[in-house]
């Protein structure tokens, strides 16, 4: 027969200095304000979206914050153009 070891109380992760894996964050992270370059990219996107030409290419590098701002501006500019029709 195997000797049994007495049960030990489990130690919670925060007691060991580790983050709590079950912690719930009820509030989303605060959003950082847009930089001037993102605002400029958004305005350029709005101007491009208002134009009739559909072949406007995003002038900013892929996966950059400016590229995302340009795309949002472009879509908003298209919405403005279609509402004015």
Termini separation comes to 86 Å
Number of strands: 0
Our estimate of the beta-strand percent is under 5%
Which value, in Å, is the CA radius of gyration? 26 Å
Order of helices and strands: HH
Overview in brief:
This protein is an all-alpha fold and 85 residues long. The chain is built from two helices and no strands.
Structure overview:
- The chain is an all-alpha fold and 85 residues long.
- Helices cover 41% and strands 0% of the residues.
- The protein starts with 35 loop residues before the first helix and ends with a helix.
Record the SSE blueprint.
Blueprint: H1 36-50, H2 65-84
Question: Any key phrases for this structure?
Answer:
85 residues; mainly alpha; 2 helices
């Amino acid at each position: 027969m195997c000797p049994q070891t007495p049960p030990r109380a489990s130690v919670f992760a925060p007691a060991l200095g580790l983050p709590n894996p079950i912690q719930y964050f009820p509030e989303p992270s605060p959003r950082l304000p847009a930089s001037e370059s993102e605002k400029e990219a958004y305005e350029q996107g709005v101007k491009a979206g208002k134009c009739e030409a559909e072949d406007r290419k995003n002038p900013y590098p892929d996966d950059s914050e400016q590229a995302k701002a340009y795309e949002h501006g472009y879509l908003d500019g298209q919405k403005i153009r279609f509402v004015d029709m």
